[in-house]
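fyi for ur records
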Amino acid sequence: MNRARAPKLDESNSALYRPVPTSKRAVLCWEPATYELSWGTQRFDQPHMRVDDGDQPYGVELRTFFATHKAVPDKPDHYIKDAPVRALQVREDTDIVTVIDGREEMKATVKAGAWIVQNPAGEQYYNTDDEFQRRYELLS
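which gave:
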């Protein structure tokens, strides 16, 4: 089956969204880790942040995490994502590869109706429509 490949998102094909301010727990994980997620498999060979926001725990590369999140005062190990993202709802199954600093972190197939989300530094991941609606709102 042929699937589309995810484009780099820009103002011509996507919109800007702001994260809904929701606190999530995140801790530094020093050991290599693999996260088997509903949306793909993540692999980390070096320190990263392990995030638990009520769904499945997942990993985020350190530089990406601290560029897109801020600490919640007086609540240890809790953060809020505060960086706006670009996002595109896909109309057909689409393959994405998350690459951070030239290292492949994850491959996944985004199902039609789900969202490709792109952080400010360009790394892509995806959310189901329900996850996206819960986590983001259109930046007006």
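The mean pLDDT is 90. thats all i got for now
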